[in-house]
Amino acid sequence: MREQSENLLSILKSAVHHEALSLNESAEYDCLMELAQEQSVLPIVGEMLCRDPEFIQEPVYGRTIRQIVASVAAQASRTAAFLELYKAFADAGVYPLVMKGVVCRELYGNLKDHRPSGDEDILIRPVEFETVRKVLKGQGYEPERKEMTERQLEEVQEITFEGGAAGLHIEVHTNPIGQESGIRRDMNQMFRSVFENQRRIEVDGTEIMTMGHTDHFLFLVLHAFKHMISNGFGIRQVLDILLYDEKYGDEIRWDYIYDNLRKVHAEHFFCDLLYIGRQHLGFDLPAKYGPNCPEELLADLMDNGIFGSKEQAYQTAASITTAAIDRGKKRNRFMVLLQTCFPPMEFMVSRNPELADRPWLLPVCWIRRWGRFFRYSRDNGGGLVSDSIAVSRQRIRLLKKYKIL
Predict the structure, then answer these.
(1) How far apart are the first and last CA of the chain?
(2) Residue boundaries of the structural domains of the chain
(3) Are 298 and 237 in contact (CB under 8 A)?
(4) Which of 16, 61, 187, 376 is deepest in the core (most CB within 10 A)?
(5) Which residues touch 386 (CB under 8 Å, ≥6 apart)?
(6) What is the rounded distance in angstroms from the CA atom of residue 330 to the CA atom of residue 327?
(7) CA distances in angstroms from 172 to 134, 162, 176, 220, listed in the order given
(8) What whole-number distance in Å separates Cα of residue 316 and Cα of residue 389?
(9) Distance between CA atoms of 273 and 206, rounded to whole angstroms?
(10) Is 175 in contact with 196 (CB distance < 8 Å)?
(11) Do 21 and 51 touch, CB atoms closer than 8 A?
């Protein structure tokens, strides 16, 4: 799999820099396409491979063509649906800030529809929620949760709306990062002026609002960092960050970026992403610090799958890792285990917004959580506990190298 990871990186390098494709002789196409699927870059990888005469002779070629065509067509439809939705927001007098998604896809040029995203994230002021909800419902989107109180809007990270055109999901955020841990609340504080620094861009003839370059770039890095310290992230997020830096680096306030990254011990993590870009993806972007442990970070993110979703163990291990971070220097195995089994209110309310108004339901939510865990464990052959502990130990070793623990 290591050789196929190197091939995947080589293909992505060729794609974003418009270079000739170069692969190792040991390319195993089935394995390579499986890895690309896990990392949610299959359309890009497949598009590049289909230019290789050797790949055209492979049995996987026909399936890959079908996957590319379906993915690109679906993404183009989702983008068009989102732009129509944004026009409806504007007609209602609200202008949400678009995060990631369509903004990042624009960085990929002719391959923008090859960079998939199943949802679009928008950031709003809490007072705009009712207007935004009415617009979404009018366009055929239904909220995952039917009722949201003011208190819940302050606590949750996003409210999901589904069922709209082209299978598009909308994540409505009232804060960029989430509130379920101390480090996430610290990161949210860095975006207090985000609406004052917003900017307007045009996508396919439609004007949308998004964060200013410095805020958006900081968000992309911290969003990856947030996933790294919990259940992991993938190479697609690295590409988004590198491409944004390459295109808008001259407009980014770098002192502000590094000052804020230092507050959460993310500055060396970021510089390692730049190192990965130089060594493996053909970028030449300046970094303030030298490499820390970039190859270990690369191995971790290539093993995770996108957002740590490759296996259930990666997702379950996030609770253990989060507990270890929250305990900080006071942590010990017993207290980490206790917090993993009985997460604090801040962690639980993000998944159970009703707790914001009815905190006495916390024990009930714990019981539901345990029930889901045991069902997952049964479905995964009964080894979920040991697998999750192994994954969390590996992640904790990495976090120690970044001095987060």
Answers:
(1) 30
(2) 1-58, 75-211, 213-310, 316-401
(3) no
(4) 187
(5) none
(6) 5
(7) 13, 11, 10, 17
(8) 9
(9) 32
(10) no
(11) yes
> How big, in percent rounded to 5, are the helix, strand and coil portions of the chain?
65, 5, 30
pTM: 0.87
Report d(CA 95, CA 375) in Å as an integer.
42
Neighbours of 193 (CB within 10 A): 10
CB within 8 A of 238, min separation 6: which ones? 224, 273, 276, 277, 281, 301
Chain centroid to Cα 200, Å, comes to 23
| Cα–Cα distance measured from residue 79 to residue 71, given in angstroms and rounded to the nearest whole number | 12
Backbone angles phi, psi at 288, to 5 degrees: -75, -30
**pLDDT digits 0-9 by tens, 33-74:** 999 999 999 999 999 999 888 899 888 999 999 999 999 999
Q: Among 72, 100, 74, 76, which Cα is nearest to 208's? A: 100
* 3-state SS, residue 382: coil
CA distances from 87 to 83, 95, 145, 248 (A): 6, 9, 24, 26
* Confidence (pLDDT) at 24: 75
With contact defined as beta carbons under 8 Å apart, do 176 and 188 qualify? yes
Rg value, the chain, Cα: 21
Cα distance between residue 141 and residue 123, in whole Å: 17
Enter the tokens of residue 307: 């957002």
Cα dihedral value 154, 327, 223, 19, nearest 10: -170
Q: Domain 75-211 classified CATH 3.30.460?
A: yes
Q: Token pair for residue 64?
A: 């890959």
By the 8 A CB rule, do 355 and 349 touch? yes
With residue 210 as reference, give the H or E element that holds it. strand 206-210
Q: How large is the average pLDDT for residues 328-340?
A: 59
Give the per-residue pLDDT at 326.
61
79-111: pLDDT as tens digits: 999 999 999 999 999 999 999 999 999 999 999
